[in-house]
Every structure is written in C-alpha cells, then in structure tokens.
C-alpha cells in the first residue's frame, strides 16, 4: 500500500477544467468564468488563480499541522548541555537533581532491607571502589527517577548508596546518618564528599566518592560521581569544581577492616612498603595510634595521620630502642617483629 502525499494530492486540482460537453450548472458556470478570465501574462483566468490560492492556503495549513511551520523549517533538536571539562575551574554546577529515600528498585520505605545505619552491611574500601568502578564501566545514565539493574537509583546519592552497599536508596541529606564527619587529611579511598544546599535541597546538592589523591600537594583527587550524562571517574580539584568550601568529607561507619577508625585493627603485618617516605595509607595511622597508646608518641606535634612522616619514624625508632634493639633493628621502619611486638 502506497501512502499519498497530501500536498501533491491538493496540487492535482490546479489545472482541472470543465468538460466541454457537460451541461451541469457547475461546469457551465466555470466555462463562463473562463471566457472572462484575464490574459495569460496577467496570471491566467480567475478560476485557475482562485484554485491556486485555495491550494496554497491548504498547503500552508497542512504544513503548519504537520511540521509547525513551512516545509523547510524542521524543528531543531536541542544539543545536550556539555559537562564541566577537567581543569575548568569556572565549570557550572553539576546537574544532579536527586530522588527521595526509598527501597531498591523504588520500593516503599517499609520494603528497605537496611533502612538504618545500624542495619547496614559491612564493606571494605576495596569493595566500595570496585562497585563505583562498575558503574563507570557500564556508563550508567544519570536519572533521578530510574533504577539500575542492581536496584539503586541512578542519581548521585543512589550511586553512593550502591557503592556503600546500603541496601536502600538514600539522599545527600540522609547519607551522613550512615557516616561520620572527617577532615581533609583523613580522606581515604571509599570516603565521600557531600554538599547539601538548604536553598535548593534536591537539585543543589551533590556527593562524590573519593578515590585517592592524584598529587602530593593534595590539591586534586580521583572522583567517582554520578552526574549528567552518566557515571564519571576523573581528576577533580579539591573539593569540587565549584562551591568547593561547601563540600564536607564523610566516612562510612560500616567499614570493615583496617582504616575504619573504630574497628578492630588488623594484627597481621601488612608489609614494609606501607611505611616508606611518600606512603599514604590507613596502616600508617594505625601504627601511629598504637605507638601513642604505648607511650611513644612524643615526636608527634599533632595526632598521627595517614601520611608517613619523620615523626612516625622517630616514634617507631623510640619503641624499637625500648625493646633493646640496635643498629638496623632500630632504624625507625617497622618490620614483622616490630609490628608483632607493638600489637601484642
């Protein structure tokens, strides 16, 4: 079946003339009109010009109904707004409106498996980063109303709910209920940076997953985030491209293993590579805090941190000397014997 173009159908009536032998009133009237028509150089006879005018009006009407204007004026498709480019400090705020607290796949609050911080599942930092990376690999599209196959809402707070394994979809306003506030120097992979805007609670707030520092000056970090058009992993100026001072670092209280600030410290020696100049990890803090508890924290001007420093080396050396060790055994760098003795 072939569809007929309505415009071409209308134009077929432009040249219709009355039959010479037809005696009906209509054809007779049209023949009389033709006799009084203007010369061809003035536009042809009146009946033909009238038909053409009616056809033109109909063409314009059909064009308006089908295309919103003339045939040449097709509606333009709006180009997606570009996201902020890395290094662009003047980038606009992220377009990250978020949904409400709810269960997986949008279920009701009563259907949530883990609705409170106390009921949330323990998770390691490595698991958090792997989960965040999985959405990056799948290029999950941003949406405040849609849910990915794992049940988590495809906005910034749903992304963190997924990475932390909360078993429910939270918002930037409720995520702190599952976390504790920390300082910039305490940030470790798996922690988050949250900005809540009281003036625009839904669309003005945002959260990113901290993936580690990219430079020794701690001015940039790897950020995992869910923002339009989809999940991103990129080097980001601390704390964010804009409104930097409004972002607050938080740590999930359900962390399992070392570096969770309150969990049971690991007693197995992690390896000498974690205690060398430039090292920045949770084991350095764990070592320093134990040295302080044992009474060997005199070299610290401030509390132990995650970055290996000369204060850590001197505190470790003081502990080694107290064990009666000398020479290479008391160089200030912990080994298996130092670690085992310190945590016994």
Please describe what this structure looks like.
This protein has 344 residues and is α+β, with helices and mostly antiparallel strands. The protein folds into three domains: 6-67, no CATH class; 104-252, Alpha-Beta Complex (endopeptidase fold (from Nostoc punctiforme)); 272-342, Muramoyl-pentapeptide Carboxypeptidase, domain 1 (Orthogonal Bundle), CATH 1.10.101. It has helices spanning 6-11, 25-35, 46-67, 125-138, 156-164, 282-293, 310-322, 336-342, and strands at residues 179-181, 192-195, 206-213, 220-227, 230-237, 248-252. A six-stranded antiparallel β-sheet has the order 1-6-2-3-4-5. The chain is elongated.
Give a nutshell description of this structure:
The protein is α+β, with helices and mostly antiparallel strands. It contains 8 helices and 6 strands.
Which terms summarize this structure?
single chain, 344 residues, alpha+beta, endopeptidase fold (from Nostoc punctiforme), Muramoyl-pentapeptide Carboxypeptidase, domain 1, 6-stranded antiparallel β-sheet, 8 helices, 10% strand, disordered N terminus
Any chance you could write out the topology, listing elements then pairs?
Blueprint: H1 6-11, H2 25-35, H3 46-67, H4 125-138, H5 156-164, E1 179-181, E2 192-195, E3 206-213, E4 220-227, E5 230-237, E6 248-252, H6 282-293, H7 310-322, H8 336-342
Antiparallel strand pairs: 1-6, 2-3, 2-6, 3-4, 4-5
């Amino acid at each position: 079946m072939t569809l007929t173009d309505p415009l071409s159908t209308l134009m077929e009536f432009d040249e219709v003339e009355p039959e010479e032998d037809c005696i009906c009133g209509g054809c007779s009237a049209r023949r009389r009109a033709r006799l009084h028509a203007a010369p061809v150089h003035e536009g042809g006879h009146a009946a033909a010009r009238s038909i053409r005018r009616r056809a033109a009006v109909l063409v314009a009407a059909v064009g308006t109904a089908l295309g919103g204007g003339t045939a040449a004026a097709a509606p333009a498709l709006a180009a997606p707004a570009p996201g902020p480019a890395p290094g662009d400090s003047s980038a606009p705020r992220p377009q990250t409106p978020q949904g409400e607290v709810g269960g997986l796949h949008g279920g009701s609050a009563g259907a949530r498996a883990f609705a409170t911080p106390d009921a949330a599942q323990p998770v390691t930092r490595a698991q958090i980063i792997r989960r965040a990376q999985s959405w990056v690999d799948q290029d999950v599209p941003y949406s405040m109303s849609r849910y990915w196959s794992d049940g988590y809402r495809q906005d910034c707070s749903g992304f963190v709910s997924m990475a932390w394994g909360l078993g429910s979809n939270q918002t930037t306003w409720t995520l702190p209920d599952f976390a504790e506030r920390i300082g910039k120097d305490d940030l470790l992979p798996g922690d988050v940076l949250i900005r809540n805007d009281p003036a625009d609670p839904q669309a003005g707030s945002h959260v990113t997953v901290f993936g580690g520092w990219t430079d020794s000056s701690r001015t940039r970090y790897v950020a995992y985030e869910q923002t339009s058009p989809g999940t991103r992993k990129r080097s980001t100026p601390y704390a964010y491209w804009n409104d930097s001072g409004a972002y607050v670092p938080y740590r999930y209280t359900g962390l399992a293993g070392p570096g969770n600030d309150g969990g049971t410290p690991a007693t197995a020696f992690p390896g000498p590579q974690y205690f060398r100049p430039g090292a920045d990890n949770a084991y350095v803090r764990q070592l320093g805090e134990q040295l302080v508890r044992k009474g060997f924290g005199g070299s610290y001007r401030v509390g132990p941190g995650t970055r290996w420093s000369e204060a850590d080396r001197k505190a470790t050396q003081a502990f080694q000397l107290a064990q009666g060790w000398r020479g290479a055994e008391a160089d200030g760098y912990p080994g298996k014997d130092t670690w085992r003795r310190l945590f016994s």
